[in-house]
Amino acid sequence: MLTVFYITYIPSFSTGGAISKIRNLVNAFHSKGVSITWLIVTPDTLVPEEIKSNPLVQIIHSPGSQIDKALIRFFSAKEQSNTILFFRYPLASRSLYRFCLKFGKRIIFEHNTKEPEELLLRLKSYRFRDYLYFLRKMEVSRLLKEITIYLKERYWGPKVMELVRGGIGVTSEIAEFQKERSAGYLTRVVGNGVLCELFPMHIQPAYNKQRLDVLLICSFPNQWHGADRLLKGLIQYKGSTAIHLHLVGRFPPVNQKLAAQVPPKHQVTFYGFVDQASITAIKKSCHIGIGSLGMHRIPLFQGSVLKVREYLASGMPVAIGYEDEDIAHSELKKYCLSIPPDESPVDFKEIVEFTALVMKDPDLSGTIRNIAREVLDFSVKTSQYMKCFNELLEEKQNS
What we know:
By secondary structure, the chain is of the alpha/beta class. It has 16 helices and 13 strands.
């Protein structure tokens, strides 16, 4: 039987969706009888109690620059036979290379994005005045750090991948991208999962096309959320339905400026960063959840977005600006509106008509939730992961 160490490097703890996903996935593996440990490497000493008290968690306090020393010391004392080191890809460096040089035969990476492309997008997002700000505030070191991280990923990424068993991408597009970075790098695909039972059933509010409540949740103000496309679409929308746009989380300042241009018939509410209980309360008044609308900016045209899985787990229909393979290849596609992956403003007429169509199902939330359990739940995803682990181990040995 395989023993799995799910390794994550966490620079600092926050209430991000990725941490919740990892915790729930580890618990799901354990409930399936898999011997698993969530090994967290972090310089942060303020570890949340719910993580610290989890018996499946082990914590190594170490800065990222010394991750090789911390992990080599930890695994040198462990039995290596039948052990998988499932490593959420931490960005490449000489330190990671040294660790993979010693333990690469047991390592399988998890890839959630095209890492160098995402890092480059961040650098490109800075405007000339941002660079002037760095210079004026003597924060050149901060800028140089971001450039260095990007260059390290470009240089060390392919070298690190040569040393390991392979990788699991959350989409086919990401898996193919990683294969092209390093010759011989073996990949598989498993989309992100969700623990459906954690999310209360969404009671769909009445809808008669007089008013439509739309929900978008963003943890951080990244460009790929695409809230600007929603707001531009609302500015242009001439239909009779009044739209209330609920924006939860952190958004770039430009979104506030766009919201000020929305016609008074419509409403935009910024809630800021709130806890899960508050999100559940806000969700009660909403008819449809919006996924990421700007992933093409990375560029990514496929996605496996956590918040979309959470909408579906609760029984809420969604609209997304990319292809989700789990949705496209299942009955969930009936409850997902596809929005073009480009810079065009969102067509709210389409959202209004789509919501009216799906709400003809008197048990809409129950229908969506039941399909989500069959397709997205961690009880399904853990089996997919284990299959991939075994395939990558066998294929690498035979190659």
